[in-house]
Amino acid sequence: MTDPIDFHAWPDADGRFGGFGGRYVAETLMAPLAELTAAYEHYRMDPAFIAELDRDLAEYVGRPSPIYHAERLSREVGGAQILLKREDLNHTGAHKINNTVGQALLAKRMGKPRVIAETGAGQHGVATATVAARLGLKCVVYMGATDIERQKINVYRMKLLGAEVVPVTAGSQTLKDALNEALRDWVTNVHDTFYIIGTVAGPHPYPKMVRDFNAVIGREARAQMQSRYGKLPDALVACVGGGSNAIGLFHAFLNDAGVAIYGAEAAGDGLDTGRHAASLAAGRPGILHGNRTYVLCDDAGQITETHSVSAGLDYPGVGPEHAWLKETGRATYLGVDDGEALAAFHTLARTEGILAALESSHAVALGMRLARDMRPDQAVLVNLSGRGDKDVHTIAAREGIEL
Amino acid sequence: MSATVHNRIDVRFAALREQGRTALIPFITAGDPSIEATLAAMKAAVAAGADLIELGVPFSDPMADGPVIQKASERAIAAGTDAPAVFELVNRFRAGDTCTPVVLMGYLNPVEIHGRERFAREAAAAGVDGLLLVDAPLEEAAPFQALLSEQGLHQILLAAPTTGGERRAQLASAATGFIYYVAFAGVTGAARLNAQAVSAPVAALRELANVPVVIGFGVRDAASAREVGALADGVVVGSALVERMATATDPATAGATAGEFLGSLRAALDSTAK
Ligand SMILES: Cc1ncc(COP(=O)(O)O)c(C=O)c1O
């Protein structure tokens, strides 16, 4: 028998999770990444930094977020108990702020007066603009022109918070192109700019650092499960765009072999249509945005356009740690198509009075699917990564309703 | 005899050193807007005095490139330019030119998907001499080195203004073919070239390295070519050339445009005594 993997020991010093991760960037960024890594490794052990972060998470973000037992939903599904980790109750309405609070504190410590970010759904952009306003940092957010169109409310929120939103018209005009443009800004302004990446992608140390800042979700959840139910959940479910809310929930449980772990990827119109964003379920190993991971690309290696009703899942790559969790078999990644996600959105709204983000609705849908085949004494913990206010227009439009 | 002795890059730089000349290195995106246009431009470039050709292998997400080369890549991809098409292009170029070195420049994913070993083998068979992978810095390039040298190909490494002293030394000792010094922190095509800032780091690199050092990024015209040409073993001109060729859709115009522009740079470089 081989020893079980200690999942908490990764990544290694080079930022590798098994064969994934690394630092595939232009030479110009190698020194800034080394500087960032050194600063992060220093401050994550620094008691004053930790204390300030904890205070911000408690008093500004509103942590801990509760675990809520969705009893009516569980009854309607008929199977395991469905529990929701309520990241939607955080300030700004999603898990994204866990990470931006941490990175912004780091930016301040590193003496960088300007922060930049990429955003898809706009949640990370809003979360970045929010902390930048609070710390008095200049903030520029890159957003694909297509996403600006479908997430108008978040664009306006960012502007209200004092951020400059730069439309990206290159390529497919979505999240991946916004990330390219942010990298181009960073390479140009490395001397005074801190790039706050919004998910567990990008070059090392981002996949580790963003994970660590979001891992508060799983740490809380694990303690809450033990104190309230005296046991761990039987299964975890989270949606996976780049994978930050998912790894945030999963990480504390990775060495708990009895806890099954599931990621819900956006299957768009369906995995067999080619119009989806399921990099792990339907992609292949490649290199994108500074790391080796699973990507969606054609046979020439060109990254393909993705499709999902939710802008936050519309990404052709995925964090390298998820690629590794897939390969080791520790986690299972399944597709949820637009229709199933929308149905779950409505079921949750009707049974529990919660409007989930479209991204999170993918996790709810997979949680419902899994719960159906489980016993009532079992528990499925679903990460409700964000609230759905930003998606009301999209949902109305899809259902032919004019507001 | 080792394979490197025969690499066209080494042969060309040795000859240039003997003649006291500075290498003129045009960058052209392969397949922009067509393979025929690129082939015509390559031939015209050589006729106008180019010493080495960098051929861009298009990628959908060129994160180190500015708008000019991004658009060129989009046009090339739309025209169906993939690795086999680029190899075929080099093969056709070689039918008429067995001396001018060709370096492929691009990003890792198309190479990974094609297969590293297969890419190296097919590139070498087509007559390619070196490979420059923008998103493979020293650490990520190292595992590729053996595969390439087995095929007689050089791996061209980049150095940048942010590259520190210790790293500069590591780079210099790992370098093969030549070192490409990125003139400023930024993307290709930006107007940020400052010859004064480039001078000291390039001198330090030339001191450390056994291979030539060329300067790229931001060379737009004869004046800037002359200015940085005086500091290095070669000068790369990319965006300024690609931008001029963007309006030239037929092969004849592409060739004429490239030839005329590069001719002016050649004259400027040759006017500097070494
Ligand atoms: C509410 C919500 N959930 C999930 C995501 C997807 O990101 P990740 O996979 O990094 O959690 C987003 C991204 O915008 C989001 O806004």
Automatic annotation (TrEMBL), chain A:
The keyword Amino-acid biosynthesis applies. InterPro entries: Trp_synth_b_CS, Trp_synth_beta, Trp_synth_beta/beta-like, TrpB-like_PALP, TrpB-like_PALP_sf. PROSITE patterns: TRP_SYNTHASE_BETA. The modification N6-(pyridoxal phosphate)lysine is found at K96. Residues 62-386 form the Tryptophan synthase beta chain-like PALP domain. Its cofactor is pyridoxal 5'-phosphate. One of its GO terms (cellular component) is cytoplasm. GO terms for molecular function: tryptophan synthase activity. Its EC number is 4.2.1.20. Pfam families: PALP. It is an enzyme of class 4 (lyase). Gene3D superfamilies: 3.40.50.1100. Tetramer of two alpha and two beta chains. This is Tryptophan synthase beta chain.
Automatic annotation (TrEMBL), chain B:
Keywords: Amino-acid biosynthesis, Aromatic amino acid biosynthesis, Lyase, Tryptophan biosynthesis. It catalyses: (1S,2R)-1-C-(indol-3-yl)glycerol 3-phosphate + L-serine = D-glyceraldehyde 3-phosphate + L-tryptophan + H2O. CDD domains: Tryptophan_synthase_alpha. GO terms for molecular function: tryptophan synthase activity. Signal peptide: none annotated. PROSITE patterns: TRP_SYNTHASE_ALPHA. Pathway: Amino-acid biosynthesis; L-tryptophan biosynthesis; L-tryptophan from chorismate: step 5/5. It is an enzyme of class 4 (lyase). Its EC number is 4.2.1.20. It holds the Pfam family Trp_syntA. One of its GO terms (cellular component) is cytosol. The active site is at E54, D65. It comes from the Bacteria. InterPro entries: Aldolase_TIM, RibuloseP-bd_barrel, Trp_synthase_alpha_AS, Trp_synthase_suA. Coiled coil: none annotated. The alpha subunit is responsible for the aldol cleavage of indoleglycerol phosphate to indole and glyceraldehyde 3-phosphate. Tetramer of two alpha and two beta chains. Belongs to the TrpA family. This is Tryptophan synthase alpha chain. The lineage of its organism: Bacteria, Pseudomonadati, Pseudomonadota, Gammaproteobacteria, Lysobacterales.
